[in-house]
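Please decode residue identities from the backbone states below.
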């Protein structure tokens, strides 16, 4: 999976936001805010990653069990897939 071209992650006033660029502004009206962990996953997805890769990143960064990490990653991927932000 990889983040589609035309979207940029930026930290603005302490908040992580996804901003559409160029033609994507028409498709994706507004901005999407992300938590710290969501921003971490986004950055990994910018380079192309599997769900397993994302789970490993979360497990390395946070004190969390694998089952919870898998559930959280699936939920995050589902949301950004629904918004058509990943390939």
């Amino acid at each position: 999976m990889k983040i589609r071209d035309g979207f940029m992650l930026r930290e603005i006033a302490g908040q992580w936001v996804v901003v559409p660029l160029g033609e994507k502004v028409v498709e994706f009206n507004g901005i999407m805010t992300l938590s710290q962990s969501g921003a971490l996953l986004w950055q990994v997805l910018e380079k192309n990653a599997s769900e397993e890769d994302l789970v490993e990143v979360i497990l390395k960064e946070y004190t969390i069990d694998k089952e919870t990490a898998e559930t959280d990653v699936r939920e995050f991927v589902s949301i950004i897939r629904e918004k058509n932000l990943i390939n």
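Observation: The longest strand covers residues 7-12.
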